[in-house]
Every structure is written in C-alpha cells, then in structure tokens.
Design a protein that fits this description.
With 150 residues, the chain is α/β, with parallel strands linked by helices. It has two helices and seven strands, in the order E-H-E-H-E-E-E-E-E.
Length: 150
C-alpha cells in the first residue's frame, strides 16, 4: 500500500490497520467529519480504534451502537476531541432527538460517523468518507474520498 489519499482505493490485511490509520490522519484536519461506510464487520469501529490510538488516546474504544455517541479527549494536531457516532440503530425520527449535529465542524473536534447514510441529509458537503469492503476474513478494501458531499 503506497498512500491513502483522496479518491484512492487500497487493499490491505487487518494487521496493516495502524499504518492505514496513520495515513488517513495525514488527511484529517480539526473540524473534519469522517464518515465510515461498510457492511457489518467491515472494520468501521476497528478503524476508529486505530485512529484514536494513533492520536495518542489511551481510551478503550468500543462501538457506540447502543449509546449513539462517545467522546474521547485527545491532543493531536489541533484536535482536542473525537466524537464517535453510530447511526446503525437510529431511525429517521430519532436523528433529531439528540444534539449530534452540533458537533459537526467544531474547530477542535474530529467527528467520526458510522452508518452515515442514515443521516445523509444532515451531513456537511465537505465530508470525508472512508468506505470499507470485506474481501475475505483478513482482507479489506478501503476507499478514501475527500469533499464527498451528499
């Protein structure tokens, strides 16, 4: 794998996830929204774990599927907080029941959203997106798109 850059697609083994996370972080800026797409078990939460570890977070990162959101303090290139959202179990009406849109674009925050398609109409146009596809048990295809929009 050479580089994860906008519009690039790479195939990698799960063991290479820390390298992938480091390369994605080179594309991330404070205030960014990172949408993670992929079927169940594609590696969205595992990627979030790797990203936070590369950002120096000692936190045990787990999926926010049942609690909807988790917050992690970090100190990484102007980012002081990572907000991890998961909309897998959220219906359209429930999206308005908690204040998640207030995190989008915060100057010192990185917002990571799993299952972003459920909130597509609320997401910013300058969204960065990672799509994960299962190739086999240990192999994934990752596609990174910047300013993906709606």
């Amino acid at each position: 794998m050479n580089k994860v850059a906008p519009g690039l697609s790479v195939i990698f083994k799960k063991a290479a996830l820390p390298k992938i996370a480091r390369k994605i972080l080179r594309q991330i800026r404070p205030g960014d929204v990172l949408a993670l797409k992929g079927e169940l078990a594609a590696g969205k939460t595992a990627l979030t774990q790797a990203l936070l570890k590369m950002m120096g977070s000692p936190a045990k990162v787990t999926s926010p599927t049942f609690v909807l959101e988790k917050h992690y303090p970090v100190k990484y290139h102007g980012i002081n907080e990572v907000v991890h959202l998961d909309f897998y179990r959220v219906g359209a009406g429930e999206l308005k029941s908690f204040g998640w849109p207030e995190y989008l674009g915060r100057p010192r925050t990185l917002t990571i959203i799993e299952w972003p398609s459920r909130a597509k109409k609320f997401l910013p146009v300058n969204l960065k997106q990672v799509s994960l596809e299962i190739i086999d048990e240990q192999t994934r295809r990752l596609t990174f798109q910047e300013n993906f929009g709606r």
